[in-house]
Amino acid sequence: MDNNDKLIKKRKDEKRKRQIIKNRVILIFILIVFIVLLIFLIQRIVFSVIDYNNVAENSSVTQQDRPNINNNNGGTHGSANDYVVFETDNNINNETSSDSSSDRSDSSGETSSSTSSSSFVSTESSTSSENTNTPETPEVPASPEVSETANIDKTKWNLLLVNPWNKLPENFSVEKTTLKNGHSIDSRAYPYLQKMIDDARAEGLQPLICSSYRTVERQQQLFDAQVKKYLNMGYSIDDAEAEAAKWVAIPGTSEHHTALALDIVATSYQILDSSQEKTAEQKWLMANSYKYGFVLRYPKDKTDITGIVYEPWHYRFVGVEAAKEMYENKMCLEEYLSQ
Hints:
By secondary structure, the protein is of the alpha+beta class.
């Protein structure tokens, strides 16, 4: 073999080796990409399952426990159907975990007798801007008598309207009284709440507060969790948000942001559904809460006006005068303010 033939063979061998190396590099790259994609897919599946389970486990009120949006006792919702949502927390277990413990003296009561005026309040008062102080225990009103001739100022703090069409005012802040179970309420409404709970207990009842003040940020977390749930079920982002809005109020539109709203249930029946109205606690509250400035905020026959489905557990402080007029004339807050 002459030198030319050797040279040609050598070049062919080198070219073949380079091709083999190139093919191996390409193959390794493809394998790496495949492994990365596989790991990413597994993580997505695992995280989706964890997130879904967390949403389910953290909620003491499952979807099947909730009244059906289109078939609840409030009937159909007409043109307001797009705005009909549940005002209550879809992750209620987080807010009632302390209630379920042995320390329930603030809401469920350790005994069936009336508690002292300080049983509801802790030693702290806070505002939404996180400033805290230690005020004196609010004085519980001697009696919730109504002034028949009082003029009602509909622009007052206790008549603040927050609903699907009226968002919470920007830079809203409120001084709150923190209850022993971690819930809180506007300090100005606290004495009336205490008096109402004490009187209910004096009747042998056991009302339990399961939800109260909620920040917009907290509401955003609940809403995002519900959206993610529908995204994991294959919904588009628009459809997922639309479905989530039927179960969790859009952040900024929940009345819980005002610190004037409370979800109160019977200790013996802590499921948020239409059967709550059959409990002795709800019957008493529906008949007497107005005497203390509270109203059942979302009656079954006002869904088209409030934009919220019937919730026989959601009470709102509006003041004694307004509550009396709303109760006697069977008005919701929207109707009262539109006079």
